[in-house]
Design a protein that fits this description.
This protein is an alpha/beta fold. It contains ten helices and seven strands. Helix 1 crosses helix 10.
């Protein structure tokens, strides 16, 4: 089941960018959301190797132990992502990884049917180099616009607007390097010709700040942190995108983001 219906989506008025706010706001149902996100994550990682997903799902749902070889496979995979229960990866990395995946599955369902041509998958490890997110939108028959995303979690005493400003700066400084990885990694993929030709020109379009290129920043946090979020720093870093209306700021908030991340990790480990 898509995650979007579990969130309330609004588009508050903003100058220079589109602001999309998605709120869960239901502490009682956070565990169910965490379980759903864990299922989405494992299914996406093994979209072709379905026997691995099915083994994880059966253990997750029924508690029936996996045979030793499959347990080894699942344990090795999830260790790369978040570590093990005995030796989890540092909290900061796990929270960032969960935030990126929550953004990924929400953004896939946030636009009208047929608008999203491609969403590039989130990395296996929270420390993988490269961009956080890339979405290619269809604007017509064989015409597209892409948006390069920086995705951040906000926890502890961190100020959301300071995080947004830092993310905007990273996109400005590292955007071309991020796109180079996407272009290189797409060279051998079996893609429709129109999409392939568009992807081959992503770096050229970013440098030129062409009308079919765009930027976005997303922050994921607890609802209490979102007192007065602003993506003005994104407009400052990308004035051309701001003037043509292609900048997007996205906030995703839950009642308790920190505990939600722990729930997702526990849910992932549960299927091993």
């Amino acid at each position: 089941m898509p995650l979007n219906p579990k969130f309330t989506t609004t588009k508050p008025t903003a100058a220079g960018y589109v602001w999309v706010r998605q709120s869960h706001g239901n502490l009682v149902h956070q565990q169910a959301l965490a379980d759903d996100l864990a299922v989405h994550i494992v299914r996406s990682k093994f979209s072709s190797a379905t026997h691995i997903f099915q083994a994880w799902s059966q253990k997750h749902t029924t508690g029936q132990a996996n045979a030793a070889p499959m347990k080894q496979i699942l344990e090795a995979t999830i260790k790369v992502c978040i570590g093990t229960q005995a030796q989890p990866k540092v909290v900061d990395h796990r929270q960032g990884w969960v935030a990126e995946h929550l953004w990924y599955f929400l953004v896939k369902g946030s636009y009208p049917d047929g608008n999203v041509a491609m969403v590039f998958d989130v990395g296996m490890s929270p420390t993988d180099p490269g961009g956080d997110g890339l979405v290619i939108h269809r604007t017509g028959q064989d015409t597209f616009i892409f948006r390069l995303w920086e995705i951040k979690k906000v926890a502890g005493e961190t100020d959301p607007n300071a995080t947004i400003s830092r993310a905007s700066g990273q996109l400005e400084e590292q955007g071309l390097a991020y796109l180079s990885r996407y272009v290189v990694n797409s060279q051998e993929k079996d893609l429709p010709q129109a999409e392939k030709e568009f992807i081959n020109l992503l770096m050229d379009k970013w440098v030129a700040k062409s009308d079919d290129s765009a930027a976005g920043v997303s922050v994921v946090c607890s609802a209490a942190k979102l007192t007065n979020p602003s993506f003005a720093s994104l407009s400052t870093k990308f004035p051309k995108f701001s003037s043509n209306g292609t900048l997007e700021g996205r906030t995703v908030d839950l009642e308790d983001f920190v505990s939600f991340c722990e729930m997702v990790c526990e849910s992932l480990w549960k299927g091993i």
